[in-house]
C-alpha cells in the first residue's frame, strides 16, 4: 500500500500534466516522448538526469530528516548555498591539500557549513522558540547575501564577467565518468545513495535516531522519557543542514569547479516535494529524487521541440504529483473501498 | 535511442489535427536549408532592449534568407539550462548555426565549439578571439563606450541642474564600460557636472527587476538629477516610469535615456534619446553570411563609424533638440570617429 500510493500519484500527476499540454495545443504523446528522450535518450541525457537527481536526493533527505523530529526545514536552499560556498572556498584557498584527501576535506567543509546553517535555526527554535519555518526562510536570504558578498568581493574570478569564484585547485576535482559523455557525473553520484542508506540506518537502527523520531511523534512523551527536546532539535537541524550542504560536493567539485552565484534552480524547495512524495522514507527518497531529476532534465528540451510548452511544465508536473500524493481523503476512499467523508 | 528516432516516432504518433510539432517538418525534407538556433540572455525576449533587438534581427533574417523554418530561439530561466540548450541545439535539434546572446551564454561556446567543429557559432558581447581554437566562432563586441560618450554629452547639454544619473543593470565590467564613456561625455560638455551612479544588482536577475530600477531612479531624481541613462535591459522600464511620475509632481523636466534598442517610442515625453547597440544587425549579418556561405570566424567590433552603436534621433525625440545642439552632437560624433576624441575604455583602464 505504501508503494502503490506514490506510484499511482505519479501516474495521475503525469497524466493530468500531459492533458494540460493538450489544451495548450500540443500532442501529449509527443510531449511525453520529448520528455523521455531528453531525460534518457543518450548517455549524456541520462547523466544530466543523474546530475539533477543527486542534489534533489540530498535536499529531500534534509527536509525529511528535520521532519522526523517534527520540524519543517524550508532552509535547504540556504544550507546548500553555504555548503557549496564552503566547498568552493576550501578548494580555492587551501590548494596544498593532497589530491586523495582534498575532496573529502571539501565535503567535510560543505557538510559543516550547511550543518551550522541548519543548526542556527535549530538553536533558535529550541532555545528561543522562534518558529523554524520563519527562521530557515530568513536564513536563506542571509545565505544568498553572504554568497553574493564572497563571490563578488572576496573570491571573484577575474577572468569572467559572470559572478563566480576563482576555480578550485585541480586536487579537489572529482573525475567525471567518461561513460556519460561530458555530463558531470562523478563519484558524487554514489555519495547521495550512500548517504540515503546511512540516514535510514541512523534513523531506524540507532538510539539517537530513535530519540529524534520520538520527539517528532510525541514531544511530551519523549520529554517524560528523559529525552532532551532542545538538544535533539538542534542536533537534528544540524544533521538536516549538513545533508543539504553536501549538495556542494557534486555541484562544485565535479560540475562547475567553482561557486556560481544562483547555481541552484531551487533544489532546496524541490527537495520538499521529493521528501513528500517519498513520505519521508530515506530509501524511497532515492527514487523520488531520481523521478524529479528526470522531470527537470526532461523539461529542458520542451522549449526547443514544441511551440507552446516551456520547461516550466516540469513545475506543473511536480505540483500535480504532490497534489495527487497528498490527497488523503481520496486515497482512503480508493484503498479501503469504503465511503469516506471528504 | 538515437536522437533522430524521436522525431520519426513523434511524427508517426502525431494526430493529424495537431500536427503543429516543431519536429515533423524535419522528416519531410531530404536536404534541408540551414537551421539557426539562438540562446537569449536573462531579461527575456520582451525586454524592449538588448534581447528584443536580437530577436528582431533573428526574425528579419529568417524571413529574408533560405533558412530552415524550424529555426528557433529560447530563453534560459536559470544557469543550468544554458549548457543544456546548447547541447540539444548541437545534437538532437541539429542546428547548423548557434547564436549566443550576451556574455553569460557566450562563455559556454568555446567548449561547445571545440566539441562540434562542423557547426558555426556566433557570440555577441564577448571577445572569444583567444579561445577560438577550432576556428568556428565569430564573436562580436560593440564600442559601447563611444556611444555612451555621445549620450553623456547629450545628457549634460539637456541638464539644467548640473546633476545627471546612471542606472546600470548588473554590476559587471561591461556595464562599467557604458558608465565610464557616459561620464566622460558629460564632463566633455560640462567639466563640473555631478554624476550619480547605481546598479540594480550583482546577479543576472538584475536585468529583470524594473521595480528596483525605479526605486534607484526615484532616489536619483529626488537628489536633483534631471537626466538618467539606464543600461539595464528589462529593468530599465522602471527608470522611464520613474521619470514620468517625477514630471507629474514637479516643474523641472526629468528625462531618461534608453539603451540597446531605439527606445524613444516607449515614452516620447521623457526619453531624450537611446544609445542604440545594433545587436539585431550583428545577428542578421551572421545569418545572412551563413546562408551565403561567407561566414567568417573573426572577432569584430561594431562602432560609431559603421553604425553598430549610435544615438537615436527620430520623430519621437526631434522636439528636444535645437539645430545648434544637433550640430554640436554630430560634431562630437565626427570627432570620436576621427579619433580626435579618445573615449576612455573601462576594459583597458581595468588592466593598467
Automatic annotation (TrEMBL), chain A:
It is found in: Cell membrane. CDD domains: TM_PBP1_transp_TpRbsC_like. The keyword Membrane applies. It is a multi-pass membrane protein. Keywords: Cell membrane, Membrane, Transmembrane, Transmembrane helix. The chain crosses the membrane at residues 7-25, 31-58, 70-94, 100-124, 136-155, 183-203, 269-293. GO terms for molecular function: transmembrane transporter activity. It holds the Pfam family BPD_transp_2. One of its GO terms (cellular component) is plasma membrane. This is ABC transporter permease. The lineage of its organism: Bacteria, Pseudomonadati, Bdellovibrionota, Oligoflexia, Silvanigrellales.
From TrEMBL, chain B:
Its main location: membrane. GO terms for cellular component: plasma membrane. The keyword DNA damage does not apply. The keyword Acetylation does not apply. Residues 1-30 form the signal peptide. It is found in: Cell membrane. SUPFAM superfamilies: Periplasmic binding protein-like I (SSF53822). It comes from the Bacteria. Keywords: Cell membrane, Lipoprotein, Membrane, Signal. Residues 36-345 form the ABC transporter substrate-binding protein PnrA-like domain. InterPro entries: BMP_lipoprotein (IPR050957), Peripla_BP_I (IPR028082), PnrA-like (IPR003760). It is a lipid-anchor. PANTHER family: ABC TRANSPORTER GUANOSINE-BINDING PROTEIN NUPN, TRANSCRIPTIONAL ACTIVATOR PROTEIN MED. Belongs to the BMP lipoprotein family. This is BMP family ABC transporter substrate-binding protein. It comes from Fluviispira multicolorata.
Amino acid at each position: 500500500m505504501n508503494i502503490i500510493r506514490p506510484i499511482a500519484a505519479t501516474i495521475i500527476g503525469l497524466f493530468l500534466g500531459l492533458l494540460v499540454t493538450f489544451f495548450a495545443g500540443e500532442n501529449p504523446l509527443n510531449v511525453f516522448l520529448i520528455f523521455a528522450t531528453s531525460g534518457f535518450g543518450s548517455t549524456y541525457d541520462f547523466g544530466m538526469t543523474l546530475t539533477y537527481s543527486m542534489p534533489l536526493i540530498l535536499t529531500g533527505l534534509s527536509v525529511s530528516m528535520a521532519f522526523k523530529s517534527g520540524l519543517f526545514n524550508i532552509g535547504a536552499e540556504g544550507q546548500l548555498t553555504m555548503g557549496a560556498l564552503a566547498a568552493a572556498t576550501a578548494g580555492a584557498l587551501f590548494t596544498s591539500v593532497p589530491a586523495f584527501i582534498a575532496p573529502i576535506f571539501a565535503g567535510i567543509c560543505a557538510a559543516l557549513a550547511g550543518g551550522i546553517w541548519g543548526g542556527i535555526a535549530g538553536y533558535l527554535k529550541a532555545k528561543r522558540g522562534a518558529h523554524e519555518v520563519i527562521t530557515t526562510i530568513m536564513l536563506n536570504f542571509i545565505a544568498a547575501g553572504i554568497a553574493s558578498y564572497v563571490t563578488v568581493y572576496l573570491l571573484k574570478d577575474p577572468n569572467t564577467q559572470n559572478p563566480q569564484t576563482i576555480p578550485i585547485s585541480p586536487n579537489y576535482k572529482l573525475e567525471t565518468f567518461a561513460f556519460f559523455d561530458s555530463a558531470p557525473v562523478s563519484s558524487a553520484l554514489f555519495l547521495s545513495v550512500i548517504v540515503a542508506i546511512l540516514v535510514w540506518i541512523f534513523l531506524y537502527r540507532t538510539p539517537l535516531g530513535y530519540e529524534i523520531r520520538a520527539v517528532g511523534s510525541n514531544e511530551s512523551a519523549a520529554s517524560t522519557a528523559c529525552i532532551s527536546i532542545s538538544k535533539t532539535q538542534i542536533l537534528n537541524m544540524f544533521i538536516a543542514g549538513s545533508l543539504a550542504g553536501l549538495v556542494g560536493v557534486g555541484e562544485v567539485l565535479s560540475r562547475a569547479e567553482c561557486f556560481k552565484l544562483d547555481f541552484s534552480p531551487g533544489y532546496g524547495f524541490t527537495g520538499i516535494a521529493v521528501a513528500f512524495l517519498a513520505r519521508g522514507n530515506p530509501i524511497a527518497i532515492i527514487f523520488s529524487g531520481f523521478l524529479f531529476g528526470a522531470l527537470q532534465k526532461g523539461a529542458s528540451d520542451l522549449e526547443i521541440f514544441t511551440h507552446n510548452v516551456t520547461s516550466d511544465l516540469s513545475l506543473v508536473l511536480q505540483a500535480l504529483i504532490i497534489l495527487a500524493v497528498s490527497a488523503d481523503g481520496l486515497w482512503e476512499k480508493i484503498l479501503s473501498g469504503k465511503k469516506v467523508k471528504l | 535511442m538515437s536522437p533522430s528516432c524521436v522525431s520519426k516516432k513523434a511524427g508517426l504518433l502525431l494526430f493529424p489535427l495537431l500536427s503543429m510539432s516543431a519536429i515533423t517538418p524535419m522528416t519531410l525534407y531530404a536536404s534541408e536549408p540551414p537551421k539557426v538556433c539562438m540562446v537569449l540572455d536573462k531579461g527575456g525576449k520582451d525586454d524592449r532592449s538588448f534581447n528584443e533587438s536580437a530577436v528582431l534581427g533573428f526574425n528579419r533574417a529568417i524571413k529574408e534568407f533560405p533558412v530552415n523554418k524550424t529555426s528557433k530561439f529560447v530563453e534560459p530561466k536559470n544557469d543550468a539550462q544554458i549548457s543544456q540548450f546548447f547541447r540539444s541545439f548541437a545534437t538532437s535539434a541539429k542546428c547548423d548555426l548557434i547564436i549566443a546572446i550576451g556574455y553569460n551564454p557566450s562563455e559556454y561556446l568555446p567548449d561547445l565549439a571545440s566539441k562540434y567543429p562542423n557547426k558555426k557559432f556566433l557570440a555577441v558581447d564577448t571577445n572569444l578571439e583567444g579561445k577560438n581554437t577550432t576556428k568556428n566562432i565569430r564573436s562580436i563586441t560593440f564600442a559601447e563606450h563611444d556611444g555612451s560618450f555621445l549620450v553623456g554629452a547629450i545628457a549634460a547639454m539637456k541638464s539644467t541642474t548640473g546633476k545627471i544619473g546612471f542606472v546600470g543593470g548588473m554590476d559587471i565590467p561591461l556595464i562599467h564600460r557604458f558608465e565610464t564613456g557616459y561620464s566622460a561625455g558629460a564632463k566633455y560638455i560640462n567639466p563640473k557636472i555631478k554624476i550619480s551612479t547605481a546598479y540594480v544588482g550583482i546577479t543576472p536577475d538584475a536585468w529583470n527587476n524594473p521595480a528596483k530600477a525605479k526605486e534607484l531612479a526615484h532616489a536619483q531624481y529626488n537628489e536633483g538629477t534631471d537626466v538618467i541613462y539606464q543600461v539595464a535591459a528589462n529593468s530599465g522600464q522602471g527608470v522611464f516610469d520613474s521619470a514620468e511620475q517625477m514630471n507629474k509632481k514637479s516643474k523641472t523636466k526629468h528625462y531618461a535615456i534608453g539603451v540597446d534598442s531605439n527606445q524613444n517610442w516607449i515614452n516620447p515625453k521623457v526619453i531624450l534619446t537611446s544609445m542604440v547597440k545594433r545587436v539585431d544587425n550583428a545577428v542578421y549579418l551572421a545569418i545572412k553570411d551563413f546562408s551565403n556561405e561567407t561566414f567568417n570566424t573573426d572577432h569584430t567590433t561594431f562602432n560609431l563609424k559603421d553604425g553598430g552603436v549610435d544615438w537615436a534621433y527620430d520623430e519621437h525625440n526631434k522636439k528636444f533638440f535645437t539645430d545648434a545642439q544637433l550640430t554640436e552632437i554630430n560634431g562630437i560624433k565626427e570627432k570620436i570617429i576621427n579619433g580626435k576624441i579618445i573615449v576612455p575604455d573601462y576594459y583597458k583602464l581595468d588592466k593598467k
